[in-house]
Structure formats: C-alpha cells, structure tokens
Amino acid sequence: MSIPGTLNNFLAEHAVAYQLVPHPHSNSASRTAEAAHVPGDAVAKAVLLVEEDGQYRLAVVPATRRVKLGQLHRLLGEHVGLATEDEVARVFADCERGAIPALGAAYGLETLLDDSVLEQRNVYFEAGDHESLVRLRETDFLHLLGLPRRGQFSAHI
C-alpha cells in the first residue's frame, strides 16, 4: 500500500522533508520498531480516543509506552476512553486497519502529545499501512502537530 492520500496531501501541503522507511509486515508499534530496526522510543504510536460526547482526539506516545487514561483525565479535566476498532477504521478510512498515522492534524483531530515522544532526534510513525514508517526530524514533527496539548500521560510497558 502506498501512503494514504490524506497523509500524503498533508505532508506535501506543509512542504516538510520526510523519508519512508519500509519494513516487514507487523501488527503492533513495538514490533514495527523491531522490524524497521529503529528504537522503540522513537516510534510514535497513535491511539484514538473518544470523549463522552463522541468527539475524537489522538494521543501520541512512544511505542515502548502505553496511554494512562487516568493521567489523561487529569490533564484534560474530562473522561476519555479508547475508540473501538470500527471507530478507528471509520476515522482513518484511507489507512489499513490499525495503522494510524501520528499526525492528528492531517485528519482534523486534536493531538495530545506525551512529552516523552520528543526525547529523540527523529520521530517515526505509521505511514497508514503495516509495512512502512514515516521518518521526520523531531522539530518537523512538532511543527506539523501545530500546538498540541502536551503532558505526561504514559507508562513504560
């Protein structure tokens, strides 16, 4: 699969330099890091969240960490839960099931960024399939996110 149109257009619109990193098929962010031979801390894993009113947000944490919903609740002042697989497939309709790019802005979603993602020089994230990653400089990744709400809402796996 090639990079989905939504993501491709977003990257082109912002004229940011990126690299596609191919890897053997994988079904989880940590296995993707292994398959691509990149540090798990450098792979930005995107998790779709749903609010009580049905609105979606995207939480981004390193592949080596998991989202702590209680900490997100404290950060946001409201309850959020994990979206279902069907909701993920609907929101990211041009991506392979479960291969969520970590650029919420490309899909009209507010992005919540765990501070630990920015501890690497380069950030990698799913390119919309299970066989390639997008590689960006950390500064370009942050620029593309706009002004994400940031905080500490993850725990090491």
From TrEMBL:
Residues 23-142 form the YbaK/aminoacyl-tRNA synthetase-associated domain. SUPFAM superfamilies: YbaK/ProRS associated domain. GO terms for molecular function: aminoacyl-tRNA deacylase activity; aminoacyl-tRNA ligase activity. It holds the Pfam family tRNA_edit. It comes from the Bacteria. Keywords: Aminoacyl-tRNA synthetase, Ligase. InterPro entries: YbaK/aa-tRNA-synt-asso_dom_sf, YbaK/aa-tRNA-synth-assoc-dom. The keyword Metal-binding does not apply. Signal peptide: none annotated. PANTHER family: CYTOPLASMIC PROTEIN, MULTIFUNCTIONAL SER_THR-TRNA DEACYLASE PROXP-Y. This is YbaK/prolyl-tRNA synthetase associated protein. It comes from Thioalkalivibrio versutus. The lineage of its organism: Bacteria, Pseudomonadati, Pseudomonadota, Gammaproteobacteria, Chromatiales.
